[in-house]
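Table S2 (continued). Query chain:
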Amino acid sequence: MSTKYGFFLLLFCSTFLYAQNKIINSWGVEAVTTFTKWYWPSVGDGSPGQQIQLPDVNYRQGIGLSLRKRFLLTGSINCNVNLGWNQNRTAVKTTGPVMIQVNNQTTLIQLDNIDYRFHQIYILPTLSYPLFKGLEAEGGLYLSHALESMQFRLGNFIDWTKSSAFQQNWDYGLSGGLTFSMRSFYFRAAFQYGLKNQEEFSITDANGQSLGKASLHYHFLTAGLGYYF
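Corresponding output:
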């Protein structure tokens, strides 16, 4: 190995080995990006002709900002509390033309997706345990509340407007992930699994007739880059 590469390897190892754990009992600020997706069980009793095929859902990227507080519980276990705001987005794939009202007339348009978004505040308390120097496993619960009505967008035909079919309210679920820290900076990646039924989403057939309401939940993929003061 050449002297140059050996020097860079030594520098990297030294930086990693002396990287501090996240500062204890301090406040941090975190820039967040989210990838949100709905999921729902099949609708129907399972018999032939009674099973409703629900459309697929795409992940959509959102943004957020969070404050983070870290407490020392024991020599190896820490408590972390995030209090933040997210603008979450998701999208439902269409299975054919979509009917919209234009000048009080029904018009069919072709779309690949119907986009949805909502703003929420949340609290996320977690416990973390060190796996290696600077790397921790983190798990806990989240509780969130929407700040405004759910909005939807139909491509270039209808811009963001309030949805009358579905409204997000309270939500809660499980969260688990990894956090890597180096000195005062940290990077957090987590998966959040919604436990609350969101039963306000109406399902209609091709003629617009109601088929009931789906019991949907949320998936969140979250990544945050933060700094401790």
